[in-house]
Each structure stands twice: as C-alpha cells, then as structure tokens.
Design brief:
- The N and C termini lie far apart (74 Å).
- It is built from 14 helices and eleven strands.
- By secondary structure, it is of the alpha/beta class.
- The strands form two sheets. It has a six-stranded mixed β-sheet with strand order 7-6-8-5-9-11.
C-alpha cells in the first residue's frame, strides 16, 4: 500500500514537473530603431511577435523596444550578437563596410518593388554569399523596402536643379549615387530626418514614398522625383546562444516564421505601405516630377561608376562581386515579368 502511494506521488511530481516545464515562458527582447508610427514598427514587427507568441502557446514572449530605446541603429547587430538584445531589426547601411554582399543589393537601378527585391536578397543569402557578414548571429530573414526616390522642398526637374542640393542619404551606395548626380549628400538617421528638414539642414531626402507618411516627411517636402533609384536592405537577426537554448519545439516555431516566405511577405507589406504613402502625398497636393527620357538616361549613366565601385568593394572583401550583381539584375528582371 505504502509502496503504491509513494509510487503514485512520484509519478505525480514528475507530471507536475513536466507541466511546469511545458509552461515555462521564454522572454525575448527585440530592438529596432524606427519610431512607433512607422509601418514596420506599428504593424509588421508587432504582428510577427504576436504570431510567435500564439504559435508557442504563450511560451515565447517578445517585448519590442522601438526608436533606439535599447540599441541605436548602428549598435543593433553587435548588440544582438553580444546578447544585449535577443532579436534585432536594422539596416546594413548603418555600419558601412561590414556587409559587402548586402551592399551590392543596394546598388542603383536593380529593383523597383520590395517583394521581388526581398526574394532576390534571400536567394543570395541562401546561396551563401552573405555567410561571412552574418557570422555569429542567426538570420531570421532579410528584406528590402520599395525603391527610393529623391524628395525635395523646392522643385527639381533635372540634374542642374539637383546640383548642390543637400539631400539626406541612407547608405554608402546612395551617398555615392547622389554625389555622382551633383547633389550634396548629408548623413542623417531616419528618425532625425523630419527635424533636419524642418530646421533647414536638408533641402531634400532620399526615401521611398512609405516614409512620406510613416515618418511624416510628406509634410515638409512638396516635390517627388518619380524615378525609382535604389532599395535599402534590412535584417532581422537573433542571438545564436539564445536560439540554441530554446527547446526544439520553440526553435521550430521561430523557424516556421522565418526564412524566404516571411521575407516575401514583409516585402509585400512594404509595397502596400509604399502605395499608401504615395496616395498620402497625392492627397496633400504634393507634386510628382517625371524626368524626361533624356534625363533618365543621364541619371543612369551617372550611376555606372557607382555600380562599378560597389562591385570592386565586394571583390576586395573576397566576394564574387560581379557574379552577385549579375545574379541580382537577372533575377529582378525575371521576377518583374511575372
């Protein structure tokens, strides 16, 4: 009788221990730099975190720290790798020179829509081109925004009008592109772009239409040169040790909400946000500038040295720069036809 009772109690303790283990909640900190009103901050990342929590039956809980509250834009990669944050979303352009393969994807006049560009960036990652630059972290997905344009306070219709204009640039390739077009590139973090325009530090900004609404920049710029030039790349990464410490079933939850499918969906969401931003500035009465065919040709010609330099930088980093660039151009053209 006593032996049966003790055995029953032992089984009960084991069962309770199993339940307790199953209900163990793993808290994850996600850092990014965007203000809360931006679509990525307001919708995309919170919806992803909620999906993770639901799929894990509440055992994974992600707390989001926006607007650089936990880590600044240029600290996020190292902060995640070092464990200050468990997950981080940021842009390679914030740490110039560290992401040569990702920078190739930002060279001028390759992509137009974020969905296609995000797919191509993930294809490049899956081919192993970016293994070295993401060493030490787990890549959840990579993506881009919709192609960016030049947005100005005053009317600009050609290269002569752009000459000397102080334009905010978001990445080294775009800085080089703006210089080649005769503008004066100015480095300003995205969250500070509004204040810089308002104070007269900038005459314009290189951003997609998405930022006209998401960062309220459409209030301060009235002219948009409707000529898609570049995309920016972004990463969502996770601390490897934190990922490896999770039970296998929770790792699977994260894996199921990562990778190519997720990247394409995020790119599609950025395209939708882009269309909303374009409609927003149209409603405000802002002016869309269409470059003449002659001007478009000139702008593309000015970009050639920038493209060549970007490929050479990748070569210096030990990457097949021309191979990566040609792959991106080819796949972008193929996807655009679909």
């Amino acid at each position: 009788m006593l032996k049966t009772l003790v055995s029953g109690l032992f089984v009960g303790v084991l069962a309770f221990s199993g339940i307790a283990h199953a209900k163990e909640v793993h808290e994850l900190r996600l850092a990014h730099y965007l203000p809360p009103m931006h679509n990525m901050a307001a919708k995309i990342l919170p919806e992803w975190a909620e999906r993770i929590e639901k799929a894990s039956d509440g055992r994974l809980k992600i707390t989001i720290y926006p607007a650089g509250q936990l880590l600044a834009v240029n600290e996020i990669f190292d902060g995640v790798r070092g464990g200050v944050a468990d997950i981080g979303w940021s842009m390679p352009g914030a740490t110039p020179g560290r992401f040569p393969a990702m920078s190739i994807m930002e060279l001028p006049f390759i992509f137009k829509r974020a969905e296609n560009a995000s797919q191509v960036v993930m294809e490049a990652f899956e081919k192993g081109y970016m293994d070295k630059e993401f060493e030490g972290v787990k890549v959840l997905y990579l993506h881009t925004h919709h192609a960016g344009i030049v947005n100005t306070k005053d009317e600009v219709r050609d290269l002569e009008g752009l000459k000397g204009k102080r334009i905010r640039f978001p990445s080294p390739p775009v800085r080089s592109l703006l210089s080649s077009l005769g503008a004066d590139p100015v480095g300003v973090p995205a969250p500070q772009a509004y204040e810089s325009l308002e104070r007269g530090v900038l005459d314009g900004v290189a951003f997609p239409y998405d930022a006209m609404k998401g960062l309220r920049l459409g209030e301060l710029v009235s002219y948009h040169i409707d000529f898609p030039m570049y995309v920016l790349t972004f990463y969502l990464i996770m601390n490897e040790a934190k990922y490896n410490s999770l039970p296998q079933d929770l790792q699977m939850v994260i894996d199921d909400n990562s990778g190519m499918k997720e990247a394409i969906a995020v790119g599609r969401a950025w395209d939708a946000s882009e269309d909303e931003g374009r409609a927003y500035v149209k409603e405000r009465g802002n002016v869309f500038i269409t470059l003449t065919p002659e001007q478009q040709k000139l702008w593309r010609e000015r970009a050639v040295p920038v493209i060549d330099a970007g490929i050479q930088e990748a070569d210096k980093a030990g990457l097949p720069g021309k191979e990566i660039y040609d792959m991106a151009v080819r796949r972008a053209a193929e996807l655009q036809k679909q």
